[in-house]
């Protein structure tokens, strides 16, 4: 798991948060510092610094730094670690832009994979496969991923409804039942409408699945199953959603692939049959236009 992702995974007290924020904002200098120096810079104590490291799964500050050095060495051999908020800079040549965006998306998918709980994934796939209808609740920033998932499922006869507007989402959520499964997309996990819809769905007996950024947030607390993407992007100060987009697409692709695999031959035959019909309709239309 990426160190910055791991830093977002625990709940910390007020003084501990000061240490965590210092680690995140001063990655380049922390490796050369002592526990006392970090404590002075964060107006905390040696014990607080050590406690934060232990909460993250390390024996102490030195063990934490060893992990940091290992990660930095890995980043050096695979190319300098990219800033997910600004993966390109003014004056970058097209070759560099192409390389950076590809590297960032690849890293985001690998990090998303490392955050998977395979027991949770197995149970989720069983729910999705058996559901009469899958409802996806999303915002404008994630609707493209939801629509792509809907299109894939449509090709094998799986009913998926994408609800993106506040009124539309509330309509489906308030009528949701045990026959439905709900997938809720929110990068921050604090989208008011999405959290409300998760609660409405659960009230109706619907199992809820969140896809959100890693760490504690209101949406993951409101859902039955949770899937996480890297919390690398800032909400406003970024030039694109390259990392989160890769994470959302990867998880939804896993869902579709898992549904497909449950009845592989039947799904493949269904897809071929209906693709053939569609081709005939298109051919006939072209012929009639001649």
Structure description:
The chain is α/β, with parallel strands linked by helices. It is 60% helix and 9% strand. It has a five-stranded parallel sheet with strand order 2-1-3-4-5, with helices on both faces. Helix 2 packs across helix 4 and helix 8 crosses helix 13. The longest helix is centred in the C-terminal third of the chain and has 26 residues. InterPro entries: Homeodomain-like_sf (IPR009057), HTH_RpiR (IPR000281), RpiR-like (IPR047640), RpiR-like_SIS (IPR035472), SIS_dom (IPR001347), SIS_dom_sf (IPR046348), WH-like_DNA-bd_sf (IPR036388). Keywords: DNA-binding, Transcription, Transcription regulation. This is Transcriptional regulator, RpiR family. It comes from Trichococcus collinsii.
List keywords for this structure.
DNA binding, 290 residues, transcription regulation, 9% strand, five-stranded parallel sheet, alpha/beta, SIS_dom_sf, RpiR-like
Brief characterization of the structure:
By secondary structure, this protein is α/β, with parallel strands linked by helices.
Distance between the termini: 58 Å
User: How many alpha or pi helices?
Assistant: 14
The overall pLDDT, averaged over residues, is 87
Give the overall shape: globular
Radius of gyration: 23 Å
């Amino acid at each position: 798991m990426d160190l910055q992702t791991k830093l977002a995974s625990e709940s910390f007290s007020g003084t501990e948060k000061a240490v965590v924020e210092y680690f995140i904002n001063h990655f380049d200098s922390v490796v050369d510092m002592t526990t006392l120096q970090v404590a002075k810079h964060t107006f905390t104590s040696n014990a607080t610094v050590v406690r934060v490291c232990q909460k993250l799964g390390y024996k102490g500050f030195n063990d934490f730094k060893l992990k940091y050095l290992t990660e930095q060495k890995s980043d050096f051999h695979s190319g300098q670690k990219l800033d997910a908020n600004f993966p390109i800079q003014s004056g970058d040549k097209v070759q560099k832009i192409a390389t950076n965006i590809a590297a960032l998306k690849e890293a985001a998918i690998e990090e998303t994979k490392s955050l998977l709980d395979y027991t949770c994934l197995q149970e989720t796939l069983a729910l999705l496969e058996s559901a009469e209808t899958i409802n996806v609740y999303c915002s404008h920033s994630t609707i493209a991923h939801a629509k792509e998932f809907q299109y894939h499922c449509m090709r094998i006869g799986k009913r998926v409804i994408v609800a993106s507007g506040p009124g539309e989402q509330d309509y489906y959520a308030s009528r949701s039942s045990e026959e439905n499964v709900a997938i809720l997309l929110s990068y921050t996990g604090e989208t008011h409408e999405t959290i409300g819809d998760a609660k409405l769905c659960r009230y109706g007996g619907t199992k809820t699945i969140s896809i959100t950024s890693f760490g504690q947030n209101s949406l993951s607390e409101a859902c039955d199953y949770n899937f996480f993407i890297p919390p690398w992007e800032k909400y406003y100060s970024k030039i694109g959603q390259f990392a989160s987009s890769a994470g959302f697409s990867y998880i939804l692709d896993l869902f579709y692939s898992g549904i497909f695999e449950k009845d592989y031959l039947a799904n493949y035959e269904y897809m071929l049959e209906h693709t053939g019909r569609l081709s005939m309709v298109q051919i006939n239309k072209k012929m009639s236009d001649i």
